[in-house]
Amino acid sequence: MNRLIGDLIDVASIEAGKLQMTATDGDLRSLVRESAEIFQASAEARGIQLEEIGGPALPARFDHERLLQVVANLIGNAIKFSTAGTRISIRAERGSGETRIAISDTGPGIPAENLEAIFARFWQVGRHDPRGLGLGLYISRCIVEAHGGRIWAESGPAKGSTFFFTVPTA
Fold first, then answer.
1. Model-level pTM?
2. CATH number of the domain that residue 69 is part of
3. Rounded to 5 degrees, what angle do the CA atoms 89, 93, 98 make?
4. For residues 138 and 37, what is the distance between their CA atoms, to the nearest angstrom?
5. 3-class SS at 93?
6. Among 17, 74, 132, 137, which residue's beta carbon has the most beta carbons within 10 A?
7. What percent of the chain has pLDDT over 90?
8. Structural domain range at position 68
9. How many CB atoms sit inside 10 A of residue 86's CB?
10. pLDDT tens digits for 57-91?
């Protein structure tokens, strides 16, 4: 219930142009590691292997709590839509002028015609899908864009999905 209320408050803030963000210098690698640790027990309880692919520190300027919200949403969705025996990996890497975070799963995948629609407000897999209200990816997109980054998904039926987002390099 708290998460739902928080999401609705975030949507109202976004639509009013008042989404609160406090960017500070930090390490995106640490944020990815923290996220993986938070969801490890949940993944294991569902028989899903969750792995964080390590590497060197990735300094950037970002709102830690807001980007943690994005990564948590993406990992949570991957767990929610995956079945026992599948794998989820999280990686972060430096690109040209940006750091890219990727969350990949080996789940059922998303049809190509839905890859943009999934980021719309209140969009769901099915009209009466009990797994959420369709706000998480919309909020995630708004948070990433407020950081000056972008978010997208690559997928296909029976191929799994990879959600990417970027944050400009510090």
1. 0.86
2. 3.30.565.10
3. 130
4. 24
5. strand
6. 74
7. 60
8. 25-142+161-168
9. 19
10. 999 999 999 999 999 999 999 999 899 999 999 99
Q: List the one residue out of 143, 21, 18 whose CA is nearest residue 70.
A: 143
- Beta-strand ranges (E) seen in the chain are 24-27, 49-53, 59-62, 87-94, 98-105, 151-155, 161-168
Tokens standing for residue 98: 């940006």
Domain count, the chain: 1
Q: What is the Cα–Cα distance from 170 to 102, expressed in whole angstroms?
A: 19
Here the tokens at position 63 are 């709102």
Answer whether residue 105 is part of any domain.
yes
Write out the two tokens for 6. 């928080």
Structure tokens at 72: 């948590």
**In the numeric block, which tokens belong to residue 12?**
């109202």
Assign 117 to helix, strand or coil.
helix
Position of tokens 């369709």? 134
